């Protein structure tokens, strides 16, 4: 009777190659796009909210001395990681303005305390653990010297967190923010996505969803207490209609805001071209010397 070992070994080899291939896809090369006037550091710290060690990346001026400097938190999108901003955009150059750029790991969390996993308190990790660690290591900035900017999922996080905690920042920007995620209706075509979103935002129409829905938050917040909100979205994006509706709501309720749109899709090519505009607006609200 012929041995089954060779076939077993072949199957094992194929399986190992598949795992290695998947790992390579999950961990793209880290190739930060830095300028001569900045330095970069990667930090790992213990998050009390998440009960685990968490990394973040910092880019700051190379000529920095021990002084208080404005801090900009940059939130990545879904499927990305804390390397994204330096690897796929030219954001590092803005550290030369005298800014500390902080890029935390956000997984696919929507920067929201999970409804189903109490150990995944991602909003608390951002507003408490991360801010405390950054200010202990790099800067003792107060809210007048803090801003938050995000792309896609990170744009949702930036706008949502600012509406929920307006005392933390003086400026918030969302580039193609996924503002409609908590209230997206059920779809058979996107059943897995629906289930994933429910694991974060809880039951449809429930308390957790409502407490994290930017549209509901914007209807109930006092516009006088909310920092300046900047939104931009490509006109070819599926998120364009939701962003336009949200901008109209902000205008109707007299928030301080700006909404810019133009040609472009949901990708870093578009977001990178919008950065100069974002940081120009940011400089109107933070003490920056360009």
Structural key phrases:
single chain; Rossmann fold; alpha/beta; 290 residues; globular; 9 helices; eight-stranded mixed beta sheet
Architecture overview:
With 290 residues, the protein is α/β, with parallel strands linked by helices. The protein has one domain (30-283): Alpha/Beta hydrolase fold, catalytic domain (Rossmann fold). Helices cover 37% and strands 19% of the residues. It has 9 helices and 8 strands. It has helices spanning 5-26, 84-88, 122-137, 153-164, 191-201, 207-211, 214-220, 240-252, 268-283, and strands at 38-47, 52-61, 71-75, 100-104, 146-151, 171-175, 228-234, 257-262. An 8-stranded mixed β-sheet has the order 1-2-4-3-5-6-7-8, sandwiched between helices. Mean pLDDT is 90; it is low at 1-25.
Low-pLDDT segments: 1-25
Let me know the number of strands.
Answer: 8
Helix content: 25-40%
Major sheet description: 8 strands, mixed
End-to-end span in angstroms? 79 Å
Report the portion of residues in β strands: 15-25%
CATH superfamily: Alpha/Beta hydrolase fold, catalytic domain
CATH level-3 fold name: Rossmann fold
Q: What is the count of helical runs?
A: 9
């Amino acid at each position: 009777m012929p041995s089954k070992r060779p076939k077993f070994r072949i199957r094992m080899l194929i399986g190992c190659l598949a795992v290695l291939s998947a790992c390579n896809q999950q961990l793209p090369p880290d190739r930060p796009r830095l300028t001569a006037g900045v330095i970069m550091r990667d930090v790992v710290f213990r998050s009390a909210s998440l009960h685990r060690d968490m990394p973040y990346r910092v880019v700051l001026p190379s000529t920095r001395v021990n002084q208080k400097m404005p801090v900009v938190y940059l939130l990545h999108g879904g499927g990305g990681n804390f390397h994204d901003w330096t690897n796929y955009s030219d954001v590092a150059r803005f550290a030369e303005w005298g800014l500390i750029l902080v890029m935390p790991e956000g997984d696919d969390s929507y920067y929201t305390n999970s409804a189903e996993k109490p150990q995944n308190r991602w909003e608390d990790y951002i507003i408490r653990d991360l801010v405390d660690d950054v200010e202990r290591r790099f800067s003792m900035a107060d809210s007048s010297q803090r801003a938050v900017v995000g792309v896609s999922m990170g744009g949702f996080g930036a706008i949502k967190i600012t509406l929920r905690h307006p005392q933390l920042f003086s400026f918030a920007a969302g580039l193609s923010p996924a503002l409609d995620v908590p209230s997206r209706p059920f779809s058979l075509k996107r059943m897995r996505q629906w289930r994933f979103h429910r694991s974060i935002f809880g039951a449809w129409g429930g308390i957790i969803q409502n407490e994290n829905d930017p549209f509901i938050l914007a209807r109930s917040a006092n516009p006088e207490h909310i920092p300046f909100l900047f939104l931009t979205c490509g006109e070819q994006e599926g998120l364009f209609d939701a962003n336009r509706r949200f901008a109209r709501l902000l205008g109707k309720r007299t928030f301080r805001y700006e909404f810019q749109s133009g040609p472009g899709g949901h990708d870093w090519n578009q977001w990178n071209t919008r950065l100069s505009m974002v940081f120009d607006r940011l400089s109107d609200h933070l003490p920056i010397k360009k």
